[in-house]
Amino acid sequence: MGRLGDDGPALNEAPRLKDAADATAKPDSIRVGLFFQNFPSAQPKNSLFAMPTLTTQPPPPAAFARRFPRSPAPPPRSQPLELPAISFFGRTLAEYAQFFALDVTALRKRDVLDVAAGPSSFVAEACARGIAAVAIDPLYTSAPAELAARIAADYTHMFAQMRARPRLFKLKSFPSIDAAETDRRLAAQRFLADFGAQRFYGRYVGASLPRLPFFDGTFDLVLCAHLLFTYAARFDFDWHLAACRELARVSATEVRLHPLCGVDGKPYAGLGRLRRELKAAGIASELVRVNYEFFVGTDTMLVLKRASS
Ligand SMILES: C[S@@+](CC[C@H](N)C(=O)[O-])C[C@H]1O[C@@H](n2cnc3c(N)ncnc32)[C@H](O)[C@@H]1O
Q1: Does residue 179 sit in helix, strand or coil?
Q2: 212 CA distance to ligand 1 centroid (A)?
Q3: Which end of the chain has the smaller Cβ count within 10 Å, N or C?
Q4: Which CATH number fits domain 93-306: 3.20.20.70, 3.40.630.30, 3.40.50.720, 3.40.50.150?
Q5: 12 CA to middle of ligand 1, Å?
Q6: Separation of 11 CA from ligand 1 center, angstroms?
Q7: Considering only CA atoms, which of 236, 204, 255 is closest in space to residue 71?
Q8: Measuring CA to CA, how many Å separate 123 from each of 119, 207, 239?
């Protein structure tokens, strides 16, 4: 039995514990902990489930502190030319499956984390297919109406930018920008419906790289799209290194990152150094070509594996 199904628990019911007979099982304490973050008055004292509240991010308890990087994320330095901020923008499971080269059927009952998930419908669609998927984004501390307003503004801006720069698009994965807009607006609608229903049950977690509120090796697969490298003008090299190490820490098997270029379509300048420093930290990396290219230069992903995995 998978831990997550299509539906969360009823309002007065704690999240289900995973079937002990499931060989792929991991402790459910992290998601139960997330439940208590949303209902702090229900949180037992001195419990395994006692966790920091993500919305306010107090110092983590001693049991967690050793797993977090010591320094917080540096402040953003400058804004990218085309985009006024980090867009709250998302995609469907079908598009994720292309740029991450996913075998969706093989992921059934696996624990999958989507970091910087935005208004993607990947997690909603994955859970509907029996994948135990969780999404992370700093904006998930917002109310659904606030996110709907943010989506309306960012999508209008984003598609105007795309139409103003048609030469930056290869359109291998969609026949036109119109088709991409229809698909991605559908993704956002699916996200909003699922977020409204599931946000109190640990499927959507408000948190930011480079600190993730999960135990080491919690997820079979960790995905992160359109944050690292895309917004290289906002986050410096040290942030990228800390983010990669944190993504690898919470993964049991591997991390996939996409794309490896910035908003100008040029490869991330620090990629070689990043891979060398990750290797020195015991994290192997591999560049993999994928059967996808919408924005120019988006036909690769980076796969990270901890030496111990
Ligand atoms: C362009 S969206 C990408 C959404 C999705 N991954 C995709 O590929 O369609 C980037 C997301 O990163 C989120 N974000 C910004 N800063 C972040 C951080 N420090 N850690 C994690 N996510 C962050 C934003 O809120 C936004 O939703």
Answers
A1: helix
A2: 13
A3: N
A4: 3.40.50.150
A5: 31
A6: 29
A7: 236
A8: 10, 16, 25
Paired with 305 in beta bridges are 284
Q: Letter for the amino acid at 126?
A: A
Pocket test for ligand 1, best of 227, 240, 298 (most atoms within 8 A of CB): 227
The answer to whether residues 119 and 188 touch, using CB atoms and an 8 Å cutoff, is yes
Cα(88) to centroid of ligand 1, in Å? 7
Strand partners, 284: 305
The residue contributing the CA closest to ligand 1 atom 15 is 86
* Dihedral sign (CA 137, 143, 144, 147): negative
Candidate from 52-61, 164-173, 223-232 with smallest mean pLDDT: 52-61
Domain boundaries, the chain: 31-65, 93-306
Atom of ligand 1 nearest to the CA of 73: 19
**pTM, full prediction:** 0.77
State the pLDDT confidence band at 309, using cuts at 50, 70 and 90: low
- Helix or strand holding residue 133 (H, E): strand 132-136
**Smallest CA separation from ligand 1 atom 22, residue:** 116
The pLDDT value given to residue 83: 53
Q: Output the residue whose Cα is nearest ligand 1's atom 17.
A: 208
Ligand 1 centre and the CA of 226: distance in Å? 7
pLDDT tens-digit profile of 244-283? 999 999 999 999 999 999 988 899 999 999 999 999 999 9
Residues within a 6 A CB radius of ligand 1:
73, 86-91, 115-118, 120, 137-139, 208-209, 225-227
Mean pLDDT of 72-94: 64
pLDDT tens digits along 186-195: 999 999 999 9
